[in-house]
Please model this.
Amino acid sequence: MMKVLYLQFQKFVVILFGFFSLPQKVITANGHLFGYPIRTTVDSELAKSMLANPTEISVTELFAKYASYELNTKTLSVISERYSLDVSTLYFLQRAYQSELNKRYQDKYLSLLYKQIAGESIQLEVIQKFHVVFIPGFAYKEDPSTGADFAKQISLLNVHGISHELVETGEWDLVDDNAKLVAEKLIAVCEKHEKIIVVSASKGGLETSIALGKILKSDDSKSIKSWISVGGILRGSPLADNYSKAHYRWYVKFRLWLQGKSFDIVHDLSYVRRSEEYNTLAFPKELKIIHLVGAPLATQISKDIKQRYNSIKLFGPNDGLTPIADEITKDGIVVSELGLDHYYRNEHIDKMTLSLAILATEDI
Model:
């Protein structure tokens, strides 16, 4: 989401603030996740056991110890500090999977995904009964490499004859201004279509959450059946608060000034501010919310997000922009992709898209 801004002052931040991390402990782990075999690397023996031997006493004790804790960023940060980041990441995924609803959707998602990877076809007729509305992310036109413009998804829906449109929000506009625009567009779309799926990415998820949870009335949004939030920064980003600190706010302001941009966009995404606002949102009870959460392991962080990942790791597992537990709503359905960061770079992104779209039509 803030990739363009970040790339411009990454080197400066690294040198000035010492975001260098200690050498990462790397342990090979063979096991299972969500019922499927997995081979990966992790940062601790306990994380390895969580995949290879989940009935081991150290693993069962971990889950028993935190069973009464809410599955949120506070809990994950405690687990990260006590054990490791990968233990905390796997705890989030495995505990979310304990929910009967999450398990059903995660299993269905993976089943659809792997069928397509194996070359099998899946039934898409049900999706063709819906109109899909995309809400893009930050700088989606300026930097399409992030995928926040949904270009690949739009092309895919064109191929399959699925009705859709993109809400052209302001790339650098403030969240509340875009949220009002999204709300207006959704009202207009609801007047034309009876079954709508809203799909948002990154900052677009924050804007969508305000539109659906604060601005729109139930009568305005009754045609919106599902909302798929992909890497939604629903509570802002701790990076914005870091960038607002006095000791390097001046540099960020300077770089933005050179681009003709305002520093207001950074303050607007404040984790402290947006987290407080999130607690006031109330989503329609009949709205199905699906969160696609990318959960990178500490041992496999890509170079382009490593410094950001490390700079906010005190919050626990994050995708390089925001804590993963802050990407979900209380009653939302969690579908996870281990190993993916905020940019969801994956060769099977088209297949992931169709699998999620089918999930969004379930029970509607």
Remarks:
- The two ends are 32 Å apart (CA to CA).
